[in-house]
Amino acid sequence: MTLAEILVAIGLVSVVLVVMIGTLIAGLEALQKGTGYNQANIIAQRTTELYKSMEYSSIPVDPDIITYEPGFTVKTNIAEATYPSAGASKYKKITVNVSNRTETQAKSVSVKMIIYLFPDIQN
């Protein structure tokens, strides 16, 4: 083999290796971010389901309730308002923001979930 053939082969192998390593790193980052979104979504769903299972009158109206889950901060905002039509019925708007804490090394994720509860519909 000549020196030129060897240099071309080494060049091709190195290009392929760089592309493969870059793809693996990007895939790992996407997997970490996807896992974070999945965990945050589960926490947000669990929090909203907790309020949906409560009786309407027992749900406290509170501007900011902050709780902590492992690796996540959960900020819940409960506001009461009046729906303009349908006999001016009241409802409660529950907003749940879940974001991972800054001290974790995971990719930054944030999930926001909003539900509206009406006293006539609530069990």
Key words describing this protein structure:
123 residues, alpha+beta, 4-stranded antiparallel sheet, 41% helix
Question: Can you tell me about this structure?
Answer:
This protein has 123 residues and is an alpha+beta fold. The protein has 1 helix and 4 strands. The chain is rod-shaped.
Brief characterization of the structure:
The protein is of the alpha+beta class and 123 residues long.
Averaged pLDDT, please? Answer: 88
Order of helices and strands: HEEEE
Strand content: 25-35%
Distance between the termini: 82 Å
Overall shape: rod-shaped
- Describe the sheet with the most strands: 4 strands, antiparallel
Low-confidence stretches: none
Q: Give me the Rg, rounded.
A: 25 Å
Count of extended strands: 4
Q: For the largest sheet, list the strands in their spatial order.
A: 1-2-3-4
Helix content: 40-55%
By DSSP (H or I, 4+ residues per run), the number of helices equals 1
Helices and strands, with pairings:
Blueprint: H1 3-53, E1 65-69, E2 72-82, E3 90-100, E4 110-117
Antiparallel strand pairs: 1-2, 2-3, 3-4
